[in-house]
Amino acid sequence: MQEQDRRQYFRIDQRVSLELKVIAESEIEHHPSPTQFGVSPNFLLLSELQEIDSQSHHLLRKISEKDSNVASFLQIIHDKIERIAQAIASNEMIIANSEVQEVNLSEGGIQFKSNEAFDIGTFVSVKLVFPESCLGLLLYAQCCRSQALDDGGFMIGIEFIKMPESCRMVLARQIFESQARLRQQGSESPAEDN
Fold this sequence. Notes:
The chain is α+β, with helices and mostly antiparallel strands. The protein has helices at about 5, 25-30, 45-65, 70-90, 165-190; strands at about 10-25, 100-105, 110-115, 125-130, 135-150, 155-160.
């Protein structure tokens, strides 16, 4: 990915749980999604439900235009399913605070501090969890930056590769919601007296 392509994405600082495993490029060719983490089927539950939501949003709008009562009923069922899924997913996503870290995130990749260096071009499988929303994603990436820091750590940049559209949509939604929260917090902060 060219530098100018990387800059087209919105970037946010976000607290996430991030786990990486170095893999061979051939693993990406044989598996559409990383298999290195041994997660339960519930790990991707909320991500999959968000994909279904985006597919059904148009239909719900059409139903609403014809019969608002049916649309209201379907929305109630949707909310019930969402709450059940949140309860199931929150049990899956119990994360120790020590595993949560601040990263710089975009739809194109992640930049983060690491205790270990990665060679440029290294392929990795990524387990990414958003603790606030209990959303989990499994992605492939490639190291595009590995810079030594003064404290002995490394600034690592990875770019996502062969990302399914459903994952890109979930990531875009997380970034959008995070930006909205930041704007809201900024507008709610009291004005300074002069």
